[in-house]
Amino acid sequence: MFGGLIYTMTSKNLSVNIGGVTMKNPVMTASGTFGYGKEFESFVDLNRLGGIIVKGLSLSPSKGNAPPRIIETPCGMLNAIGLENIGIEGFIAEKLPFLKTIATPVFVNIYGTTIEEYAKLAARIDSVESIAGMEVNISCPNVKAGGIAFGVDCRAASEVVASVRKKTSKPLMVKLSPNVTDIVEIAKSVEAAGADSISLINTITGMLIDIETRRPKLANITGGLSGPAIKPVALRMVWQVARAVNVPVIGIGGIFTAEDALEFLIAGATAVQVGTANFVNPGATVEILDGIERYLEKYQMDDIIELIGSLKF
Ligand SMILES: Cc1cc2nc3c(=O)[nH]c(=O)nc-3n(C[C@H](O)[C@H](O)[C@H](O)COP(=O)(O)O)c2cc1C
Questions:
Q1: Residue 4 — pLDDT band, cuts 50, 70, 90?
Q2: CA–CA gap between residue 117 and residue 150 (Å, rounded)
Q3: What pairing do the DSSP bridges indicate for beta strands 204-207 and 133-137?
Q4: pLDDT single digits (tens) 161-217
Q5: pLDDT, tens digit, for every residue of 52-84?
Q6: What are 99-130's pLDDT values in tens digits?
Q7: For a Cys-Cys bond, which of 17, 47, 75, 150 suits 156, CB 3.0-4.6 Å?
């Protein structure tokens, strides 16, 4: 309520359009770090957010990996949750009714282990009016291709996106994995296959070892690194991709403060997603939003568009 009041008092235009979805501001939540939204309602006025992206969903519920599956690292965390989720039908029946009461667009993050699974998820989501769009996570192993992630191969990435595109007219955001040699190549492939926007980055694969037992610290052996440690890598990739594609880019990776978010916007991101920061400071999203507003005041910009991609060389 109080937060909503602050928002309506600003004279600045923070609204952005990300591939067919108009948002009141560019601050979104990153999948897997904000539950299904309701978990954060006592910390954040959910109506103030630009967009909510829920935990990645699969066709059937999944328990994810065995513990230990989260470890703190210097300046970040390593996770191998393994995409635990309640399944698309559980989400629609149990979580969506609450999200419908919020004036913020909801994006459903989806993943599959075959192209057919992605297509089925897309078709199901397409039939649900209250879902604004979907974010396709292509960082998962393609079981038919021996486990190699869809998102590390241009052909596999574009096949997934094309199959999802055929099943939906809803705005389609495709989330890239940073664990590739050439991020620009992958971004161009998914754009050509029909992505309306591109979000990046997902976590960077890493590992940790307990030297007393000489065992991996994660039961899964490897996990995904997130948090401030990955910000410079994410920022570099967002800058490269934003220059190379014509669809809006959404920046993700180590965004903890308004200054972090501003760097991504200046680099060319039209919006940002806040991830690991939510675990440290559950109010991070709205604090970031307030800081962006203050920056626009300070530099006398009336519209966030003046800032996006304004990097000087
Ligand atoms: C605990 C945890 C769970 C995550 N789950 C998902 C997921 O289900 N789907 C997805 O696309 N990304 C997932 N991610 C990746 C984040 O959305 C984000 O891309 C990544 O953590 C980098 O941003 P950050 O440094 O701000 O956290 C997860 C990250 C964490 C830390």
A1: very low
A2: 13
A3: unpaired
A4: 999 999 999 999 999 999 999 999 999 999 999 999 999 999 999 999 999 999 999
A5: 999 999 999 999 999 999 999 999 999 999 889
A6: 999 999 999 999 999 999 999 999 999 999 99
A7: 150
140 is catalytic: yes
H or E segment to which residue 284 belongs: helix 284-298
- Other Cβ atoms less than 10 A from the Cβ of 96: the count is 18
| Distance separating alpha carbons of residues 161 and 50, to the nearest angstrom | 24
Q: How much distance in Å is there from the Cα of 141 to the middle of ligand 1?
A: 16
- Assess whether the C-beta atom of 203 lies below 6 angstroms from ligand 1: yes
Atom of ligand 1 nearest to the CA of 56: 8
217 Cα–ligand 1 center, Å: 19
Atom 12 of ligand 1, residue of closest alpha carbon: 31
- How many A from CA of 252 to the centre of ligand 1? 9
Which candidate in 140, 242, 255, 304 is catalytic? 140
H helix or E strand, kind and range, residue 4: helix 2-9
CB distance 285 to ligand 1 below 6 Å: no
Roughly what angle, to the nearest 10 degrees, separates helices 115-126 and 154-167? 30
pTM for this one? 0.96
Which among 39, 71, 78, 203 is the best mutation to test ligand 1's pocket, defined by most ligand atoms within 8 Å of the CB? 203
Q: Is 148's pLDDT higher than 90? A: no
Report the 3 state secondary structure along 137-203: ECCCECHHHCCCEHHHCHHHHHHHHHHHHHHCCCCEEEECCCCCCCHHHHHHHHHHCCCCEEEECCC
Tell me 31's DSSP state: T
Quote the tokens at residue 253. 């990776």
